């Protein structure tokens, strides 16, 4: 008997324990089980069309999970079925985590939204803005004609710089209105400064102060895919005294029970979901991790790996106004600010009906966005097919994770989740 009990204990320890999120029948929290079947059917159509190998979908309301399903394959070659606790590269869904970390520093009085970045990183003091040169006759950019019989001149630079009219601020970075590494000119300027394989945020981020901005700060919206939130992660390091991975673990992941969320690559972990790229021929081809997912460089722009259940804990904390299971990370007012439009949809570069808050998109006009989402819903996506949003009016969270980009699918997923919502927030509550 003792041997049997020992074997049972070992078996339990070998199985990763899921976070204890309560579950409910869909009707108990205002969803139609019949209509939620349409979410399953949507995912299956895309699997059949080889849009992605598999997916996990998760929907919760009133703090209870109404739908949690794994479909398809984690890995095509081995035909391994998708698991609910699969580990995904969530890429830019890292940004809201950085947003929460930065707001913690603001709550502690160590950072202000209006602070110039140079307050923390002096190399950002005297920024320049790149101005693209007009195309020269014949399609070149600013190249002079060769002298008769002489050698061809060296190509002229494709842009020149002018001084920035003001410094970029913490708010600019949180809202993608800084111009830092967010377009053709600024990306070209920063290409030669890329982080090396052993460099940390502390090594690389100061060099970004030498890049040319894409536009004058605050004048438009353009996505800074990595650099902007990498800088914010570095500011958290400087103001908290901790490397960003340790800060995130101690202040966010551990309190929320996010045990599988990490900056460490996990290719040897059997729960890692294979990353695929869809070829023009409609096939799925394996991809390697991006170079910055290396366990050394803690990219705030997209370095985290996580599971749907883990990320649910983070999203539920936002739904609940900054706390979950007795652990408070932020004040309710702080979460409200994060989900308030800071960069309006009238700003050049923003899509109609969708403003931008402090680290996340915010739906400000569902009809203009052509979406079923509620006004005030906020969330973000990852480049490899992960997506979430928080609806505080409906007390709801929805998450989908795949490992192949497919923007059309994400919009359809949003609408099919919302069409299955048929009851009020009081449905099934005591």
Provide a descriptive summary of the structure in words.
The chain has 430 residues and is α+β, with helices and mostly antiparallel strands. It has helices at residues 2-14, 33-48, 95-107, 170-175, 184-190, 201-204, 227-240, 244-256, 308-319, 332-338, 366-369, 407-419, and strands at 54-61, 64-75, 80-81, 88-89, 128-132, 159-163, 212-213, 276-278, 284-286, 305-306, 323-324, 327-328, 354-356, 361-363, 378-382, 386-391, 396-401.
Overview in brief:
The chain is of the alpha+beta class and 430 residues long. It contains 12 helices and 17 strands.
Question: In terms of topology, how is this protein built?
Answer:
Layout: H1 2-14, H2 33-48, E1 54-61, E2 64-75, E3 80-81, E4 88-89, H3 95-107, E5 128-132, E6 159-163, H4 170-175, H5 184-190, H6 201-204, E7 212-213, H7 227-240, H8 244-256, E8 276-278, E9 284-286, E10 305-306, H9 308-319, E11 323-324, E12 327-328, H10 332-338, E13 354-356, E14 361-363, H11 366-369, E15 378-382, E16 386-391, E17 396-401, H12 407-419
Parallel strand pairs: 5-7
Antiparallel strand pairs: 1-2, 1-17, 2-3, 4-10, 5-6, 8-9, 11-12, 13-14, 14-15, 15-16, 16-17
Tags for this entry?
single chain; 430 residues; alpha+beta; Beta-lactamase; Methane Monooxygenase Hydroxylase, Chain G, domain 1; 2 domains; eight-stranded antiparallel β-sheet; three-stranded mixed β-sheet; 12 helices; 17 strands; globular; disordered N terminus
